[in-house]
Design goal:
alpha/beta, 4 domains, 5-stranded mixed sheet
């Protein structure tokens, strides 16, 4: 049985804030209430268990301020808090703390709620309030989950630590979006390049550490103005970094890619690596040594990451095969689908078809390149206005004077007008937008090398699909060019027969 506190006992004051910026009840105000209660009951405060920036969901025994005091049970008789939720918001954890007090002959007191575990009424009321606190915490979590899911679906960053390679920047209308962090993005691309060139995760982690490259965790600390901890690169975090679809700029939650109404991945930002590079890295991490050899021997090709299998939709990989014969060495380039046992397509043939079709459709047209435009649905401003309405509505219910009621009503009317305007303003979803450059495709194409031509195709969003129809040795081909509908082009002249090749 928990004893009822008699005069002259030792009080341990418990004060906590979830955030250092929280203004609802400051640390100083919590201390003041506890000291007033102790003085009124002729007790004396012997110490303070203070936790700032510690969530109420953290187990009391695990908090940095209160936890160590619970191991020094001989130094106090009463554990006093301003309110019960300063000890925790989870009923199971609070019940564990209540049990600890009873087992060790301590009294727990909530000063502002008149809860005293030394009385049966206090124990009953404490159980009720603990249950309410748990419900409140779960409601907060549910609202947070729903809000974050909605923001991800709207292609806006929901907050928190951004993926390595990106940084969060505010939008003009409120909310956040992701843009490339040049320093971190260069490290990501370097890691991918090294892995494709034959490096192992262990070797790469060792090299990055020896060169003093800042780890993702320390990079994030530095971005917040905190002192880096000098951590070393480790293989497991490195593997997790390379596995993440965030490298492709795609939104993900609980390990799954977030998809839009059409089933396509939601883009939060521009990709850090190409789809082809990302897939090759996944194959290497899966233990596919062939993927590493393919990556090493494949040179830059015109259609890398832009050509797909017309049968299954998977990327066609570029191969460079070398054949040595007496007095001479021959090289043959092919595109092939790794998921199907299908004949290879000669690279020169496929690239020739791609060039011909591309220039046939777009050669004399102005170049239009894709530019990533972040979304903005005004949700952050709406949420802030709703919170203000809730607070003012509660204040209006308590107001007694006509003057205060009139003033609050004016404020509520103003917020209502703001909400009406925000809700009627069309949302702008994140999207790829095409912008003219003032150049003509044929002129740019003829002035570029292979890599430049590939970049031109990629920036315009143009892809190709091809396959061999029939068995090995067949000359029949299926070939298609995909031009984004935003370019809205009329059909060109029919493809001539025979093939220009």
């Amino acid at each position: 049985m928990t004893p009822h506190p008699s005069p002259g006992q030792r009080v341990l004051g418990r004060v906590r804030l979830s955030r250092s910026t929280e203004e609802s009840t400051s640390i100083e105000r919590q201390r003041e209430v506890i000291e007033q209660w102790a003085s009124a009951h002729r007790h004396h405060v012997i110490g303070w268990a203070e936790d700032v920036d510690v969530s109420g969901s953290v187990r009391p025994f695990d908090t940095p301020g209160l936890g160590p005091w619970l191991d020094r049970m001989g130094e106090f008789d009463i554990l006093a808090a301003w309110k019960l939720d300063r000890l925790g918001r989870n009923a199971i954890q609070l019940s564990e703390l209540f049990g600890w007090c009873q087992t060790n002959g301590k009294t727990l007191v909530s000063c502002s709620e008149s809860i005293d575990l030394g009385t049966w009424a206090g124990r009953m009321l404490a159980g009720v309030i603990a249950g309410l606190a748990e419900g409140e915490l779960e409601a907060i979590r549910e609202r947070t989950r729903a809000s974050r899911a909605k923001l991800r679906e709207a292609a806006r960053w929901p907050g928190g630590k951004p993926p390595y390679g990106y940084k969060a920047v505010p939008l003009d209308g409120g909310g956040w979006t992701l843009v490339e962090d040049r320093e971190a993005a260069s490290v990501v691309r370097r890691i991918v390049r090294d892995l494709l060139d034959g490096a192992t995760l262990t070797g790469e982690a060792r090299t990055l550490t020896s060169e003093g490259v800042t780890t993702p965790a320390d990079h994030y600390r530095a971005s917040r103005g905190l002192q880096p901890l000098g951590r070393e690169w480790r293989t497991t975090p490195l593997r997790n970094l390379l596995r993440s679809p965030a490298l492709l700029g795609q939104a993900h939650h609980d390990g799954r890619i977030v998809r839009d109404a059409d089933g396509l991945p939601v883009q939060l930002g521009e990709p850090l690596v190409s789809v082809d590079e990302w897939q090759q890295v996944q194959a290497i991490l899966d233990g596919n040594r062939e993927a590493r050899r393919d990556a090493r021997r494949s040179e830059v090709s015109l259609l890398t990451g832009l050509a797909f299998c017309a049968a299954c939709g998977e990327i066609l990989h570029h191969d460079l095969n070398t054949v040595k014969r007496p007095g001479r060495t021959y090289q043959y380039r092919y595109y092939r689908c790794k998921l199907r046992d299908a004949p290879q397509l000669p690279a020169e043939e496929l690239e020739g078809l791609a060039e011909y079709e591309f220039l046939r459709y777009l050669g004399d047209r102005e170049v239009r390149e894709r530019v990533w435009v972040p979304g903005d649905d005004h949700q952050a401003a709406i949420d802030e206005a709703v919170r203000a309405v809730d607070e003012l509505s509660q204040a209006a219910g308590r107001a007694a004077s006509a003057t205060m009621q009139e003033r609050l009503q004016r404020q509520l009317a103003s917020l209502d007008r703001q909400l009406t305007e925000l809700e009627s303003t069309p949302a702008r979803e994140a999207r790829w937008e095409y912008r003219a450059t003032g150049q003509v495709y044929r002129e740019v194409w003829e002035a570029e090398d292979t890599e430049g031509k590939r970049e031109l195709l990629a920036r315009s969003g143009i892809t190709f699909a091809a396959r061999v129809i029939g068995g090995r040795g067949s000359k029949s081909r299926e070939f298609k060019i995909h031009i984004p509908p935003e370019l809205s082009l009329p059909e060109p002249e029919p493809f001539p027969e025979p093939s220009p090749r």
